[in-house]
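Field reference: sequence -> structure
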Amino acid sequence: MLRSVTVKFSPDMFKQIKMIAEKRGETISDTVRYLLKRGLEERVYEENTDLIASVVRQEVDHALRAYAIYPSLDNVEHPNNSSFMERLVLRRPNRNENPPS
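Structure field:
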């Protein structure tokens, strides 16, 4: 159920909203709802950027594990660290080179 709210806009802002409504082929009320929804969604994304970045990093790491991983020598100087750091090595063939068969 929709609730009624009265909002006052400056003439310039109202003009912009009206233009958007005309371009979208909808009422001004529908456009205001659409713009508010977009603004709220954007705010949620902004407030959760760290969480989203963490999830994306985790998924990228998971996807990269499906490819050939070669050990890096970055931790050779640290004997207490028993594992090597992993580095993905991707190679794209030269344009003049025949692709491997």
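Note: The first strand starts at residue 69 and ends at 71.
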